[in-house]
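Researcher: Quick sanity check before group meeting.
Model: Go ahead. Protein one:
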Amino acid sequence: MSSLLPLQLSGAGWSQKLLSYFSLVPAQAPRRTHYRLAGGLKTPVLVAGTRNGAVLQHILHALTTLGAPICLPESSHSLFKGKASSESVTQVKWVRLDKIRSTPREQVQAIVFDSSELGRPEDLIALYQLFHPIIEKLAPGAKILVMGKPPLECRSPEAAATQEGLQGFVRSLAKEIGPRHAATANLIYLHRPSACDLTSTLAFFLTGSSAYVSGQTLTLQGQQGAIRVANSPLAGKTALITGASQGLGIAIAESLHAQGAKIIGIDPESNRARLKSVMRSVRGRSLSLDLTVPSSAGQLKEYLDKEETLLDIVVHTGALTTDTPLGKLTPTQWSQVVDTHLGRVTRLTGELLEADLIASQGRIIALGTLPGLAGQFGQTHHAAATAGLSGYIRHLSHHLPAGITANVVVPGFIESEWTQTLPFTSRELARRLNSLGQGGLPVDIGNAVAYLSHPASEGVTGQTLRVCGQNLLGR
């Protein structure tokens, strides 16, 4: 695939060093898998922490539920007083970090580190003590997941500073391991950890389904109860996808269909033939509507009432990009972009909620863009709308009925028919401007949406998840 070919420059010496310095040399292609919780984790996971508390217990329990082989550092033996954890944790292998480092063929595939008990700046040495001996022994595509406590929930400024420091550590670590190993590192803050279901989150971040997610921070909320792991977790659920005939819409439809969901795809009349073709492939239903027309929300409501259908998942996709400096923008260009990225999302979501057409465990997911997070030349209208989208979803999440979640997925440079039309230099540079040194694939977005749609992901809400390989734009 062309997206994974190294960038060719004349004069390999200084140019290659320059690219390497800025993490622009592509690593090997990350191994991707389709997101699925059933079947569990087969990869051995090294688990460490500084205290045998609630978070560490939940990590071990979730990994056991997923069937993952668990490895614990021998240095933590006293932490468990000879026992790995509760009686439910049975398959444990004790390992020596120094032996891993000195054994030529030894590699670490996945690491979960409970940092939630770190409360003083000097406690950050625990990060060094765990990762320093084994950082050179990461397997290709290795996954690192750090667990912490939301800084604003800490009891002292020192504890808040320490927990905030985890973000800087994880972002920097991701930039070190991405180019060399196609590996990723991410941070999860746990709010009310005793009520957090970690299964769907671990199944996403510790597998190839999160291959293009790195250097990111999410906050996981406590939820109502445990979720049973099912082979088809979305069976019987209905997913509405706007822009379903386009690249990312197609990938999302395929991912949700693979999890058992029934798909309703929406696109304007001009895309009717293509939409019908896509919906046939996922055994879904097509609906021709132009959602930029205010009356379309009412038409959709009438359709759902007629079909006696509630929506379990609503995915807003679609994008309209015009790179034009503010001084040259026309009022029409401004209004079209703002309405496409923000107006129609708020209008449609509001109508569906007001009409009680979103089910009690519903999922609302909107696709944003990187300019909305970081800003970009010639995209003031685009950035205002997509930044507003994150604000809308974050605020909405606090006012939804219990069980309904709302999140934003922000794609980075994703290979598509449109990206193939870009000038060669622009396309190659865009591919390299992230820690993995390559473009993402539509399946990466489909996996992220499937993760957020899962019943066990109820604790993830009001979040913005970047699927961008840790793009240099923004945080």
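Researcher: Fine. The other one?
Model: Protein two, sequence then structure:
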Amino acid sequence: MEFRTSGLFLSVLLVALTGCVSSPEKLGLAYQGETRATDVQFLVDETWVDTNDVRHVDQEIFDSIYEMIDDAEQFVLIDLFLMNEWGFEPGPCMRPLGVELTDKLLEKRKISPEVEIIFITDPVNTMYGSLESPQFSALTNAGVQVVYTDLDKLRDSNPGYSKPWRLLGKPFGVGPGRTLKNPMGEGRVSMRSMLKMLNFKANHRKVIVTEKSLLLTSANPHSASSAHRNVALKVNAGMAMACEMEAAVLEFSGAEGAAASLPAVVEADTPPKGNKVELLSEIRIKEKVLSLLKNAEPGARVDLCMFYMSEKEVIKAFGEAENRGVDVRIIMDPSKDSFGRTKSGVPNRQSAAKLVKAGIPLRWADTHGEQCHVKMLYAENPDGTATLLLGSCNYTRRNLDNFNCEANLALTASPDDAALVRARATFDRWWNNEPNRIYTADYETYQDGSWWRKFSAWWGESTGMNIF
């Protein structure tokens, strides 16, 4: 009996320390689907300063999302990472996006109660159970199905912390408390919630789908982020794929009923002349990035604009493409602005040093309190087509290697396609700047040779003990 008790204890301890999380494929993650679309729109939110250092914005993404909600006749399915008012200060160039989206959905419930609305989000919006979200409470009270992603089901990106946490922290649960200041804004939170946060897990997707259209973006309805630079693709196909992809998150988050309530989306036969659209999640995004870089031939054009970049295999692939004679250009956020606080530049400045050493021209987004939150890759292919890949996914280990929930769209078409022409023109505008519009700065502006920050970037990427 004593032996059996000891064996049971050791088994429980082993499971707690090694983890019992299902593989991404068993959870329905690592999704890949393909269709064709005849109407694809490339949308841009951009911020710049003029020669007098006055900041300006020009935005399209959330206005397009609001139109999708207005036009929906059957359902609205949303999966958005960050929606709250923490840290928001009204002023020029700022919008209360969280309030706007909430009001739009409440209006839709009132005008069209027959339309099913499901909103998937991340527990970060309640600081992991410590704070009530006024926006999501209002939506729930109006009959919107709000589903918080069960992050415990995701793989451990920070295993050195998550394994002992499952044994020593998880059994105590989460809940309200006032022990610590909310690190993201107003209010105070419990120690238990802070300990859960340090697992660094997230449903980081930004997906909006109705029976009529599908939109993927890098933008969050986070009011303090409303001046960020972002991009999106909106298509008139792929809605059934998106519902299938999101149903997996609903199911492993304990919302099987919400998944079952999604209407069956019947999409019209796609004309054979439609352009190829791929819906990709998690590691399938990484596979697509590496394939695009591997297949780029000498003289081809590859442009990247990225918020966070640190994944070693991807950085190496960019360097190899440049060495083969591919015309690579990269714009990167300097990792200096974070809602009124100044960041250290890790990991982007250290990754940039490697890319520049490989001979790649690189410019920094010229940020003034906002962030260049874009995650966009454009690559011309040897067969005379081009591919635009964008969505929620940063090029880091946590985002690319089946840890976070992520989702991107890839559009492959002729370089003359209107969406691709606009994407190229947008990148060129950012790269070259314009009279009285400054978007980017020279690499030397934020060049960083600190050995300590270089070690910090390597350590954070290798161990998962980081926020990127």
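Researcher: One line on it for the slide.
Model: Residues 275-463 form a domain with the Endonuclease; Chain A fold (CATH 3.30.870.10).
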